[in-house]
Design goal:
The structure is a single chain. With about 180 residues, the chain is of the alpha+beta class. It has 2 domains: about 45 residues, Ribosomal protein L9, N-terminal domain (Ribosomal Protein L9, domain 1, 3-Layer(aba) Sandwich), CATH 3.40.5.10; about 110 residues, Ribosomal Protein L9, domain 2, CATH 3.10.430. Helices cover about 40% and strands about 25% of the residues. It contains 5 helices and 9 strands, in the order ββαβααββαββββα. The chain has a 4-stranded mixed beta sheet with strand order 4-9-8-6. A 3-stranded antiparallel beta sheet has the order 2-1-3, with no helix packed on it. β8 and β9 form a beta hairpin.
Length: about 180
């Protein structure tokens, strides 16, 4: 089934794109949710109008969400958890727990569906991406440590800052 996307659909395409999708996906999800319409000749004539309208909406949303993206980009979240001797957690750190920690720490509303990571089941440092919009995807660091252990995050942040500034200086020197 060919459909014309009316809105941006994560992992499928942007508004105004014509995509071939499975019949059930189009009939049971995309069309009822108002995300797409059948790609008829009449609908295809409206592609430019849909793209222009979606671009305006997308830019306004990006402007609004860029403030949140700046807040949480490079954020460091720590979780204390029980773990075995080999560093395997009893349980896991889920996207729901990460979303709640971001919401609590930065006073922004993030849903678990916006966070892209596998459930974390090992001690150590992990990375996760937060999908605010199609274009804004800040990355956060997650540090998981044993309950009762004290960790020192500041030297890691300072080291990362030094590495970032050194790489910028190298890039500028190469220009």
């Amino acid at each position: 089934m060919k459909v014309l996307l009316l809105k941006d659909v994560y992992k499928l395409g942007h508004a105004g794109d014509i995509k071939k999708v499975a019949d059930g996906y189009g009939r049971n999800y995309l069309i009822p949710q108002g995300l797409a319409v059948l790609a008829t000749p009449g609908a295809i004539k409206q592609v430019e109008y849909i793209r222009a309208r979606a671009a305006a909406t997308r830019s306004a949303l990006n402007e609004e969400m860029s403030i949140i993206a700046q807040k949480i980009n490079g954020a460091v979240l720590t979780f204390a958890s029980k773990a075995g001797e080999m560093g395997k957690l009893y349980g896991s750190i889920t996207t729901q727990m990460i979303a709640e920690a971001i919401s609590k720490k930065y006073s922004v509303t993030i849903e678990r569906r916006q966070i892209e990571t596998q459930p974390i089941r090992l001690l150590g440092e992990h990375k996760a991406r937060v999908h605010l919009t199609v274009d804004l995807v800040p990355e956060i660091r997650i540090i998981v440590h044993r309950e009762g252990e004290k960790i020192d995050i500041e030297p890691q942040i300072e080291a990362d800052t030094e590495v970032a500034s050194a790489s910028k200086a190298t890039e500028e020197a190469n220009k």
